[in-house]
Amino acid sequence: MAEARTIGSLPVANVQELAEACNSRVDDHQIPERYLSKDPSAEEVVAGDDSTRAIPVIDLDKLLDAQSSEEECAKLASACHHWGFFQLINHGVPDEVIGNLMSDVAGFFKQPLEDKKEWSQQADSLEGYGQAFVVSDDQKLDWADMLYLQVQPSESRDMRFWPTRPASFRRSVDAYSSEARELAYRLLEFMAKGVGAEPASLRGVFEGQAQGMRMNYYPPCRQAADRVLGLSPHTDPNGLTLLMQTSHDVHGLQVKRDGRWFAVEALDGAFVVNVGDALEVTCIDCVLFASCECDVTMMFLSLVFCRS
């Protein structure tokens, strides 16, 4: 019987290293069967470049403006109810804060594998470098490596898993997570307002609760680009997820609505916001396809906000 685990994650092969071996075609490396899924092209994907089919775009400036706030709040409430996803523009997180984090995360993943292993997950924790939610020896695996950290409240941080290279990594994560926390609180207030509740009511549920940051690295897979998934179909169990894509030249995120998959054309500089199960507003499946036949690597940064 395959080993199963309920805490932490079973160790598996490093996908970045596996991709390098398979893409180079040296020694005829093959993609292990555990990473191969059914052909995702078998399901229709609706292009996201049609404005009538794209996930909604919410403007924080309009939410904050007294003249446009009511209309934008209604739009936000509709996006949460009907989609469970929206893109957020003019969010107020400084470009410098985002750029510093993106640069440091890229720098971390560019390091040799042995250097990254210094921050590997341990048996009793999902934090650290590796893969999440590997609970058996025969489950299908995602074509991705990740670094997961508990970032807020600051006293909950386990610094055993916080890289010190690049030298500015910890400082960048701290600044980014602090800015994102305040942004999430603002969004929660407007979400409450949009359904006629007191703005502070929803924020109070999540204020001071756990905030995690997951940094996902999706290497190209030329050998089986249409058979690997960067992130398997799932729903987010938390309250809110703020998703930031490092490259807008490669698209992979899709969301499922009314039985159909919709491609997300991420706007430059925008957050893609997922309303999680904990808010009990909607329950939308999401998937990330790492189908990439070119020499492009994707990274996604996701901040999750939980409730007790």
From TrEMBL:
<dbReference type="InterPro" id="IPR044861">
    <property type="entry name" value="IPNS-like_FE2OG_OXY"/>
</dbReference>
<dbReference type="InterPro" id="IPR050295">
    <property type="entry name" value="Plant_2OG-oxidoreductases"/>
</dbReference>
<dbReference type="InterPro" id="IPR026992">
    <property type="entry name" value="DIOX_N"/>
</dbReference>
<dbReference type="GO" id="GO:0046872">
    <property type="term" value="F:metal ion binding"/>
</dbReference>
<dbReference type="InterPro" id="IPR027443">
    <property type="entry name" value="IPNS-like_sf"/>
</dbReference>
<keyword id="KW-0479">Metal-binding</keyword>
<dbReference type="InterPro" id="IPR005123">
    <property type="entry name" value="Oxoglu/Fe-dep_dioxygenase_dom"/>
</dbReference>
<protein>
    <recommendedName>
        <fullName>Fe2OG dioxygenase domain-containing protein</fullName>
    </recommendedName>
</protein>
<feature type="domain" description="Fe2OG dioxygenase">
    <location>
        <begin position="209"/>
        <end position="308"/>
    </location>
</feature>
<keyword id="KW-0408">Iron</keyword>
<keyword id="KW-0560">Oxidoreductase</keyword>
<comment type="similarity">
    <text>Belongs to the iron/ascorbate-dependent oxidoreductase family.</text>
</comment>
<dbReference type="Pfam" id="PF03171">
    <property type="entry name" value="2OG-FeII_Oxy"/>
</dbReference>
<dbReference type="GO" id="GO:0016491">
    <property type="term" value="F:oxidoreductase activity"/>
</dbReference>
<dbReference type="Pfam" id="PF14226">
    <property type="entry name" value="DIOX_N"/>
</dbReference>
